[in-house]
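Structure tokens please, single chain.
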Amino acid sequence: MKKWFLGLLAAALLSGCAGNAGNTQTADEIAQALDTQGLTGTVETASQSRIQTLIGTPYAYTTEDGAQIGVFVYEDADAAQADAACVSADGFGYNREGADGTGYNIRTSWADAPHFYRKDNIILRYIGNDADVLTALEAVCGAQFAGSAAE
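Here you go.
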């Protein structure tokens, strides 16, 4: 009885630890995944904008055709999910509440339709309507969590 209980306890603890961490990806791994979906591009470190909304470490994936995808890498999936929850459903707003009750709310105008995707610890932001890019993003990440409907 004692061995069974200790085994069950150990399994529960180990599964709990693994469940919180989730899979983690790097910007290069996401770029490789997009490349396998027919896009060809490069990834490089991007600079933080003056008004930074998404708080992950920013990278830019640029396709040979010039499409740019913002890649934001977080410590873990929970951090990415928490930041994703700050993006409005239409992709034009960002609302971050601080633990002390302060925060900020930003509305923006994009040059084209915004699309936001999340895969594990990464958020991808694509502004545009290129069908090949949208198809590749959905194949790698699943359905977008915020943004405009694909045209």
